[in-house]
Amino acid sequence: MINMVISDALLDIDQVNQLTGLSQATLRNWEKRYGFPKPQRSEGGHRLYHVEEVQKIREVVSLCKNGIKILEAIERVLKGTSPVSDTAVAISQPTSPVFVEPLNEGISQVLKALYKYDMDLAEQYLSRLGMRLSETDLLEMVYPKLLMKVGEDWENSRINIAQEHFSWNFLRTRLLNYFKSNRVGVNQPKVLLTTPPGELHEGGLIVLAAYLMLKGWQVYYLGVNLPMDDLLHAYEGIEPDIVCLSAIESENIEKNWNELEKMKCVVVGGPCLAELRVQELPESKHISLVGGNLHSAVAQMELLLHSAT
């Protein structure tokens, strides 16, 4: 009984206009002329767009801003050969067939170096990946895979605790470097990120924080395992537009549900969503569940902020 569960949301054309900057007339013209986007229709005949479709529109817009003709931009996005981001300077092609193998190989090389405690070599391999990908591509395609693989290798006893700690601290330090970007934009959202009591894993959360920092958001990163009283105190002092919580165990969200409801515009993400007993929780006006990849999650957060204004 959550106020909004928007990982599978359908957005109307006015909301898409707000999220992409394209006028309704332009959206209709693209649909008629290029067959893109392809919205669904409500019973009343109104256009409805899935979140993933909105992200594709945003990617096309970003490509066009980088000098790509609209038809070519649409073809690239639909083929999945040119993911871009609002902050990307160059157009990269990380998912094309010729790049998938080097990307996976590069990730494997970083991990092998880390497991041998060779920080310089790991830095070298990571820098090579950085030469071929934008900063945002690294955050979406490289760091999550590295973090996930380190966790999996430890859980399956392929590495020991010392190797896991060394690898995690190496990656965490590099992610924290994004916090020095100082790219806060005018009138950008203010976001507070943390994990609830009992949650000690911050991998996904710190990647999201770094990504939002690159987008110019005002990021207040409070780390992990934050007591609820302290979270509410920080909320009153910071007055964020949105609060992001990440959790692995669903019970750490469920038992703090009423306290979370005291804050406006709270989003919850992470593995906890798979087992969260939504039907047993009190009705909420302020808590939303956000899933999907990094682009999709941020698009959902932006929609929530637009809806609140």
UniProtKB/TrEMBL annotation:
MF terms (GO), sorted A to Z: cobalamin binding; DNA binding; DNA-binding transcription factor activity; metal ion binding
Organism domain of life: Bacteria
Protein name: Transcriptional regulator, MerR family
Pfam families given in the database record: B12-binding, MerR_1
Sequence ranges assigned to domain B12-binding in this UniProt record: 188-254
Keywords: DNA-binding, Repressor, Transcription, Transcription regulation
Originating gene: merR
Signal peptide bounds: none
Limits of the HTH merR-type domain: 10-80
CDD domains, alphabetized: B12-binding_like (cd02065), HTH_MlrA-CarA (cd01104)
